[in-house]
């Protein structure tokens, strides 16, 4: 397995340690392939994560968002006492999958159907951060303004 060494990055830049940590985490998460998942862009500011969780019931799955980190956990209860397998090919093992979310990305919905857990996300920028257009005025003041807001005609009167 190939590992990345980010120590030169830590020595040469200041303030990018969070980015390096994200890259290290992404490299470590890529090594584990269970369960498989898709990330889809469904709109301008909308996304969907689909995770293959065949065999898991909704009460065995947990979705949590904390500080821009989406964590999906699957905990399977041990029920091997009653069953005797001749071949066991379905992976019913516990898992934890983490997704780093960008700022202002929120989870809007989660749905389990046909063995796929679909998690809908949306980027919701606050009004203060949205771009806005400033109108440019082309009209000139009709009368020159003097000190304290009085016009020349008001001063003469």
Task: Give an overview in words.
The protein has 157 residues and is of the alpha+beta class. It is built from three helices and seven strands, in the order H-H-E-E-E-E-E-E-E-H. It has helices at residues 7-12, 17-31, 152-156; strands at 37-43, 46-52, 61-66, 69-74, 95-100, 105-113, 116-123. It has a four-stranded antiparallel sheet, with no helix packed on it. A hairpin with a 2-residue loop joins strand 1 (37-43) and strand 2. The radius of gyration is 28 Å and the shape is elongated. 7% of the residues are buried. The mean pLDDT is 81.
Report the structural category. Answer: alpha+beta
What proportion of the residues form beta strands (DSSP E)?
25-35%
Q: What's the Cα radius of gyration?
A: 28 Å
Mean of pLDDT: 81
Question: What order do the helices and strands come in, and which of them pair?
Answer:
Layout: H1 7-12, H2 17-31, E1 37-43, E2 46-52, E3 61-66, E4 69-74, E5 95-100, E6 105-113, E7 116-123, H3 152-156
Antiparallel strand pairs: 1-2, 2-7, 3-4, 4-5, 6-7
Concise description?
With 157 residues, the protein is an alpha+beta fold. Helix content is 17%, strand content 31%. The termini are far apart.
Main attributes of the structure:
157 residues, alpha+beta, four-stranded antiparallel sheet, three-stranded antiparallel sheet, 3 helices, 7 strands, 17% helix
